[in-house]
Amino acid sequence: MADESLDGRGHRARLRRRLFEGGPEALLEHELIEYLLALALPRRDTKPLAKKLIHDFGGFGRLLSADAEAIMRVGDVSEGAAAAIKIAQATALRLLESKVMDQPVLGSWQALLDYLRADMGALAIERVRILYLNARNMLIRNEPMSEGSVDEAAVYVREVIRRALEYHATAVILVHNHPSGDPQPSQQDIRLTREIVEAARPLGISVHDHVIVGARTCASMRSLGLI
Fold it and tell me: What's the mean pLDDT in 160-185?
């Protein structure tokens, strides 16, 4: 196959060389997706497909965050091709999460925000995540709690507290995203956060923050003086 010629020429060979020599920044977003798809579709020109997927999903991040069924349906591709994209997302998230795991969360705040933006910033629906911490502010559990519609996810005060007690957590960080892209807290966000703070206080559980994740930035309710 000409695209993978033995003498090293060909488009994919050039992509590999650029990646090896220049690192991740050497490839454009569509080239990263193109190469991932080529792993599952070796006999297909995957550049047009990569560009189409990024366009149809509304960007690189939204494509990586899309569920496998949607990728297969929109791209008309195999399960293996969708899996190639999802494994890239899973690998990136695991790498970012590892930077938070083995040190106090409050001392690695930017690393936490980077992870949360990668995980939730491009989602088309609302997701709620609770971080449970011990007395040293080390992460005990990073737990998705619920997913909702385009602008709503259910958070149950009793469930947050129950899980904190189950994990022997002394503090929690609440996190959710705004699919609109605007991370500014709503009145409902503020009210719910204060309900959790009041429920947790008598049990010796602190609510360190409620982070709202937008498309480009995050908002800290503690920094905004709302906790």
Answer: 95
Residues 6+ apart with CB under 8 A from 194: 227
Q: What is the pLDDT of residues 46-83, one digit of tens each?
A: 999 999 999 999 889 889 988 899 999 988 889 999 99
Residue 199 near residue 207 (C-beta atoms within 8 A): no
Nearest Cα to Cα of residue 129 among 172, 186, 87, 93: 172
11 closest CA partner among 55, 52, 50? 50
Pairing of strands 218-220, 127-133: unpaired
CB distance 68 to 82 below 8 Å: yes
HSE-up of residue 21 (Cα within 13 Å, Cβ side): 6
Which run of H or of E encompasses 161? helix 157-166
> Is the separation of the CB atoms in 46 and 82 below 8 Å?
no
Q: Which helix (H) or strand (E) segment is 129 a member of?
A: strand 127-133
Mean pLDDT for the stretch of residues 123-137: 92
pLDDT the model gives residue 4: 44
Residue 20 has which token pair? 């090896």
Phi, psi of 192 (to 5 degrees): -65, -45
Spatial separation of the C-alpha atoms in residues 124 and 203, rounded to whole Å: 35
